[in-house]
Amino acid sequence: MAIRKILEKGDPTLEKHCRPVTNFNERLHTLLDDMKETMVKGNGVGLAAPQVGVLRRAVVVLETNVEDEGEEFIIELINPEIIEQSGEQTGPEGCLSVPGEYGIVTRPDFVKVRAQNRNGDTFEYTGEGLTARCFCHEIDHLEGVLFTQRAERMLTPEELRGE
Ligand code: NI
Question: What's the fold here for domain 12-161?
């Protein structure tokens, strides 16, 4: 595994539409492993392939809604689609490609996705709260959309310092 370089806002790669993953091979597995390691190193809760310069529809998301003292785990979503959503949450959101900036973004509170795993098998997964927010944020990346385009406003330096 390896840490990959995260592209930052202003890089045109982050504004591009990503193509579906069609080969569920070793190269994809290495990409996913590297994305997970890169996300964890950056203290992120999600990462999309275009953020590491790969214009393919693959994302990783940290699932933090674990009950009964379960451990957090990372979900891999290949060719994800949102098939159901409900509720609404409004709160601060950031991105490893937009370091140090946060904005207020409204997202659904529940999101059901249909995706493939690293072997190409289709599954469905329902995310809630932060996980739902991450699913939307990461799937936006696959369309070249950053949260800064969705934010109703960005947090001020005072707010970032907690004043
Ligand atoms: Ni992001």
Answer: Peptide Deformylase (3.90.45)
